[in-house]
Amino acid sequence: MSEPVGVKTLQINGEEVSARSGQTILEVAREHDIDIPTLCHLEGLSDVGACRLCLVEIKGSNKLLPACVTTVFEGMEVSTHTERLQKHRHMILELLFAERNHVCSVCVANGHCELQSLAQDQGLTHISLPYRNPELTVDASLERFTVDHNRCILCTRCVRVCAEIEGAHVWDVMGRGINSTVITDLNDPWGSSSCTRCGKCVQVCPTGALFDKSKVGSDHPKYPDFLPYLNLMREAR
Amino acid sequence: MPAFTPPPLPSDDKRWKIVNGTMRKNGFARHALIETLHTVQSSFGYLDDDSIRFVARSLRVPLSQAYGVVTFYHYFSLKPPGKHTVTICAGTACYIKGADKLVAAAEKRLGIPQGQTTKDGKISLMTARCVGACSRAPVVLRDGEVMGEVNSEQVLEQLERWAVE
Amino acid sequence: MNIEELEQIAESVRLENAKYDYEVNVCMDLACASQGAGPLRDELVKAAEKSGKKVLVRRTGCMGPCSSGPLVRVDPEETLYHHVHANHAEAIVASLGDGPVPALQCDLNEHFDKQVRVVLENAGYIDPEKIDDYIACDGYKALLTALTEMSPNTVIQQITDSGLRGRGGGGYPTGLKWGTVAKAGGDLKYVICNGDEGDPGAFMDRSVMEGDPHRVIEGMAIAAYAVGASKGYIYVRAEYPVAVARLTAGLRDARRRGLLGNGICGTTFNFDIEIRLGAGAFVCGEETALIASIEGKRGTPKPRPPYPAVSGLWGKPTLINNVETYANIAPIIRKGGKWFANMGSERSKGTKVFALTGKITNTGLVEVPMGIKLREIIEVIGGGVPGGHTFKAVQTGGPSGGCIPAEMFDTPVDYETLAQLGSIMGSGGMIVMDDTSCMVNVARFFIEFCMTESCGKCIPCRAGTAQMFTLLTRICNGGGTLDDLELLEDLCATVKEASLCGLGQTAPNPVLSTLKYFRNEYIEHIVHKRCPAGVCNIEAAVPEVQAEVLA
After folding, report:
1. What is the ipTM of this complex?
2. What does the buried/exposed string (b/e) look like for A43-57 if buried means 16 or more CB atoms within 10 Å of the residue's CB?
3. CB-CB: which of B33, B68, B73 is closest to C281?
C-alpha cells in the first residue's frame, strides 16, 4: 500500500503547511520552525519512539502519536502543545530526573545537557516524585571515555550509533524495565570490550552519562551533527 | 568477503554438539539465538559467559545483543541451579490465596531471598509468574512437579527433607 | 488427503470405539494430574483388564471444574465422578453396567447447564495425542472444506459474518484483521499464534493447546489459506512444557496425514508451522514484541503503525491471533458465520472461555456465551464464595484489567461493558476476591507485576510503574499521604496515555479501577492507618522521611 509520491497539505497548530509524502510530523514541524521536544530522536539515527516527549495529538484519534515516526497524511490536523501534552511532557521529565541521580551542579555535562535544557524549556523547577537514588556504577576503564550510569536516561542513542553508524554494535541494553542498563559486550568493563574507541557514542549522548575524560566541568559540549553528513557521504560512495 | 567459519566447540563435552545441532537446524541464522539459548540452558542448566560467547559468535550476533537478550528474558539463568528447586507460583490467584506467605516462610527457612540458591548449592528458591494451575492455588513446583493448595508447613517439610538428604 | 479419506478415518475410529461397551475418560490436565490422575488412570486400565469388561480408558484434556478433580466421566451414561483416586478404580470399573458409584458422583448440573461449549467442545472427549480422535469429532473437515470449496475471500467473509473478535484481550474484529493481511502485497506472509499466555490467573490457552492441539493447528491453517501465508509460528511459553510437547506431536501427526506441508489436500496450498518458545516475558504478548522475540531479539515493542498486518515478522505482512481465537475458526467454517453470530450479545459474538479462580467454590475453566451476567458466572457456575465470606470484587483482564465491585455483578460480560467499568475482557482470567482481600494490596500486586514486566524501552512505563509501585507500597505500609493519592492519579494518566505499548497503556487499570470503586480502602490506609481486610502489615512499617531535592 505505497502512497503516491507527492505533496501533502496538513495543519500543525492551526497553521497550514505542506510536506512531502513519507515525511514524519517531526521533520515537517522542524522545517517550519515548530519546536517539538525530543530526546531519543537524533538526526542520522533510526527512530525508536521511546522517550514519548514528541507525542502529538491528531484530530480524529484519541491516541497520542510520536511525531518522530508518524508520517503525514493529507488533511492531517496536528496539535503539538496542548495542555494534555504539556502535562505528560512535564511528568516524563520528572520521571527521568527521579529515576537515577541527576544532580546538575556536579555533572560534567552541566550547561551542555539536553535533559537539562528540556527541563528549562518546560519550566520544570522541582520534582514532586520520590527520588529513587539507585546505586549505579561509573566505569572509567577506557583510556579516553567514561560511562556514568547514574546519568544515563536509556535513550539508546549510543546503542544505535554504534550499531548503525560505526557498525560495531558494542553497546546494547541489558536487563529490563527499571533495571535496564546499557552495556558493552557481555557487560564487560568498557576498557576491555571490543570497543573501537571511535567516540561516536560520547558525541551523541544527550547527558553526562558518556563523557570525555579530558574535558571537565562546563567545557564539555557535544557535537552530534556529524551524523547526517556521514550518512550523506556514505550514500554518495 | 571471506567465508564465515564458526568458532570451535568450547570443549569435548557432548552437550555442545546438541547446542550446535540446534544452530545447524536453523541454518546458523541470527534469529535462532533464543532457540539456541534454550538448548544451552536445558543441556547445562544455566548460561555462562563462555556459552553465550560461543552461541553469539556462531550465530554472528553481537556480544552485547546476545547478553541483552539473555538478561531480558526471566526464563534464562546466569547461575547454576541448586540440586533441588522449589518454585512458588506468584500469579494472581496464588497471591490472593497467600503465596506471599509461602515465599516469606521459605526465605526465612533457607536464609536467602527468592531467586537465589543456598550456599551449599542444595536448594534454589524461585518464584514463577504463573504456571497455569490457578484453580489449585496456591501452587508450588517441587523440582518441576505441580503441588496444589499448598500451605507453609508443607513447603517447610519439603525443604527439611531436602536439607537432610 | 481428501474429505472422503477424512471420513474413512473418522469411521474407523468410531468402529474401534464401538468395540467397547464403556468409555472411562480421565481428565489429565494439570490440576487433575497434580492430584493423582496419572496413577488413577493406570489403576483404571489394570482394573478394566482384570474385570474382563470391554472398557476403553481414555486420557483427555481439561473437563472444567478443576476444584472437583481428579475427574472421571463414564460414557455412554455421562456419569461424572469427582475427587477420584487410584483406590476408587476398581469400584468404578465394577459398577459399570450396574449404575453409578453414588459416593463419587458429583452434582454439577447447574455448573454445566449455563455453559455453551464451542472452543472446549472436545475437551474431555478426545485423547489430545491422537489426531484420529480429533478427526472423528469433525476435525480438519473445516480446513478441507475451505481448501476445496471456498475461496480465501469466502473464508474471510464467514469470519467477518461471525462477528468473532480477538480473544487475546483487545477484541479487534478478526475478519477485519484477516482482510487487511489478505490485501497486503507480497508473496511471503506469516501467520502467528500467540500462545504466550503471560496473564497470571489465566490458563485457558494452556488448556486448549494441551487438550485439543489440532484445533489450534487447523485454525491456523485455515487462516493461512485465507490470508495467503505459507508459514506459521506458534509462540508458546516455555513454562508450558506439556503444551509444547502436545503441539510438537500434533504438528508431526498433521504432517504425516498430509494436513500440513506442500500441496495440502491435492491443492496448491502449502503451509507448515514451527514452534517458538517464549522465555518468560509478559510483554511478548504484545504483537510487535512477540515478533521481535521470534526474530531472536529482546522483546521490546515498536510504535504502531506500521501494523504487523502490513509489516510484521521480518518486515512481511503477518497475521497474529491468540490461541482461543484460532480455536474458534474451525467450528465457524463448519457451521457458518451466522451460527456463531447467533450466540452472544449485540457487539460481542460467540462464547468466551474464562479461568475462574480465587475465592470461589468451583474453580476451573468455564465457557459461556458472551453477554452472560457476571453474577451467573460467579454465583451459579462458580457456586459462590466458600467459607461464609462475602464477595468483594472480581478481577478480569489480569494486569491490564480492573476490579469490578460486587454491586456491578449484574453487568453483562462483553468487551464494551467491561471497558466501561474500567476493566477489560482480557484473555479470560477471572479472579474472585472476598472480604479478606485488600484492594490496595491487589493494586500494588499488579503494579509490581507491570513494573517487573515492563521492557524498559519507553520512559512512562519504565519509570512510571516503578514510581507507582513506590507510592502504593508506601500507602500499604501506612506511610502514604493524600498528596500521594493525587500524585498516583497524575502518574496513572501519563502512563496510560503516553506509554508506547499496550502493557504500559493498560498498567494503571488495576489502580484506577480500585481507586474508583474502593477509594475508601485507600483512605482507610492513609488517614486511619488501618487495612480493612487485615492484609497489610501497617504496624511493622517504618515511617519514611521523604526529602525534596531540587534538580
Report:
1. 0.94
2. ebbebbbbbbbbbbb
3. B73
